[in-house]
Each structure stands twice: as structure tokens, then as C-alpha cells.
Amino acid sequence: MSLTISASYKAGDFALDINLQTEAKRIGILGASGAGKSITLKLIAGILRPDEGRICIDDRALYDSERRIDLKPQKRRVGYLFQNYALFPAMTIAENIGIGMSCSGTEKAVIIADLIRQFKLEGLEKHYPRQLSGGQQQRVALARILASEPDVILLDEPFSALDIHLRDQMNRELLTTLEAFPGHVIMVSHSRDEIYRFSDEAVIIDQGRIIDRGPKKEVFAHPSCVRAAALTGCKNFSRVRRLDDHTFEATDWAVRIHTVQVLPEKLVFIGYRAHEFEPVWGERQENCIPFILSRRDELPFETNYYICPSGKETSPYSIAAWFAQRHQWAELEAKGLPDYLKIREEELLFFVT
Q: What's the whole-model pTM score?
């Protein structure tokens, strides 16, 4: 099964232009608030109408501006899990699950009973949504979606309103619940951890455009641009002056870095993840930045150090972050703060014009 989205949409000053074709079953769309994630889902579901383009599942067009096709939402076979689950408060759990089913009588009752067992909702059939926990409400909403036999399930920030403990628990439950679903599942989130845990293919959206996409491990390991790297969690960037094939100056950190590999010719930025620095005590080694402490944040399982390698803040990139993990605390306690942080070549991210 393939999914094709080639659509443009404009509302006020915001413009969305999405081009995506994939056969991946689990697709995660990552982006900051206002990037266009939820709008993309609403275009697929038929809640919003593109200005032009087409949206297809295999050869079945949900929307095609040239062919004047625009299926109504109830005809698209798309299940949409809203952030608040959108359960009907005056209906029982069984009634909520069966509300969109086209069959009736015994057949409908059998399907509802099967879904109640599948989603571990036994004994709650006559309860109302207000009597259920958040996790139970989510399972009811998913059961209602599956009762309509969709080709695609859309998840719109399904954990955004939950605390961290519930978010992790319900994320695991959701993954388990959807294991057997044969169609596409698309989840949008501003949380890189949720997208990484959920997806096979990651799509990064910024200001209404796809700026990176591909297998999730590849996108997170080798983001294509500075903005994509930042959205996947990279904290450190510096502008670059390329000196030769194996040497560059990280101008925001006022240091020179030597590499074994040949540097890209049009190198303009480098990125470096905050947990990859190697602390160095004593004499300066090659590819080190001075540890000039700006501030420190102590967290339960890591300590975040923010340093100013150049000695002065001259740009938004002047401060570098080192996230020291808990297993490093004993060494820091024994030796004190390091004199330098070493950059490992294999962990550098290179960005060109």
C-alpha cells in the first residue's frame, strides 16, 4: 500500500506545500508548533481542502484537483484520533465504538464485542467516557476507528496533554494496539522521542515544507540541514570557515578542527550533539574546545553544562552544551570540571549551502 500527498494549502500568511510518496506503514511527522503538521492530517482526512494537488492511497484518489475529486471525510476510509479523543459523553463505551459502523443487529454486536476484548475494555461496555481513565478513553477511540475499517489512521499529538509517566505508558500501549493494523499510521508530534519510538519513516516539516525525510535512524543520524538537526535534538552549531580539505575553523567557538575525511567543499555549518563531547583534563589535545563555564543545570539523570569556548558571546551559536550522563558524575566529582571538551570526528554533522 502506498500513500501519496502532493498538496498546497494557504490560510492567511501561512502556506503549506507538501510532497510525499511512501510505502512505509508507520510514518512520523516531526515539527515545531505551527509548522503545518496538524494541517497535513486534516487535508488527508478531508477536514480541510487543499487549494490544489492530489492525495491518494494506492490508486484510490481521496482528492485530485485536476480530476475534480474530493471525497467526503466519511468516504475516505481514514480514521482520525483527535487529541481529546472526541468521544460522545452521553453514549456508553459500546455505543461510542459502534457509532460509525454501517452494519447493524447481531453482526454489529459481534464486532463491538470483539473490539472490546481486543482493547481490553471488558466490563466497561455500559460505562460513559467520564468514568474512564485517559488510557481507556484512548483505547475506546482507537476501537471506534478500527470499527470503520480504515486504510489510514491519523494520530494528532495523541500524548500532548499527558504528564511524562502517562505519556510513556500510553505510547507503549498505542504501539502494541496498532501492531496488527495493516494500513498506514501517521502520527504528528513536536516530540522527537515520540516520533523516533513510533515511526519507520520520519518526515520533518518546517514552515509548511518538508525539509528532511527517510528511515528514522538515517534522518536522526544524518539530518540534511541545520533546522532538521535542531528538531531532532542537536544543541550545538557553529558557522564554519573551510581552510583546506581536512581543516576548518568553527568560527563561533574560535577553534580549528582537523579531520581525516575530506570536508565538503561548500561546508558552512557544523553540528555536534550535546552528549557526544569527551572531557579532557590537563593539556589540550587536538580538536578540543576550552571549557569556559557559562552555567550549569542539574537534572535527575544528567548535568547540563553550557560553555563559551571563545570566551565571549558573540552570536546565538557561541554557547555550546555538554550533557554529562549520570555514569560520568563520579569522574567529575574526583577530577573536577574538565579543562577541555574533545570533539570526535565521527560524531560531527556537516551542513553545506
A: 0.89
